Amino acid sequence: MRKLQGWEGQGRKLDTSIEDGPESAFTATSGLHGTTLVVRASGELDYCHTSVLRAELGRAWEGLRSPTLILDLSALTFCDSSGIGELLQARHHGLEEGVRLILTGVQGNLARRLNLAGLTQVFEVFPSLTEALEVA
């Protein structure tokens, strides 16, 4: 069963996230920081959970009112190739829509995978959400 939940950023609270259930290993939530929409991914992004991120990003694209979307991955504990594929789809969608997609908090397993695949030059990456918000 899917449960809707919101994430409160600086500003107003958006009730647009999806969580797979009480024992979910992955969540994706959205919140506004000023006028910039931030999607926060948490847990293990694998084949079983890419649909959760895809759904949250879909709602984010629909409600986006700024030229920048930040994807905060600082709480991601694991990401497999299907998760990286989902990030590439988000980048492609952003390019089509003229939206700047920024990744923040890339670390551990994901940082290694992006580096090995040569994708660190493909994505715009900032170490922290604070730094990404400064340029958004």
Automatic annotation (TrEMBL):
Protein name (Swiss-Prot/TrEMBL): Anti-sigma factor antagonist
Region (Disordered): 1-22
Listed CDD domains: STAS_anti-anti-sigma_factors
InterPro entries: Anti-sigma_ant (IPR003658), STAS_dom (IPR002645), STAS_dom_sf (IPR036513)
Transmembrane parts of this sequence: none
Molecular functions (GO terms): anti-sigma factor antagonist activity
Domain (STAS): residue spans on this chain: 37-136
Family: Belongs to the anti-sigma-factor antagonist family.
Pfam families: STAS (PF01740)
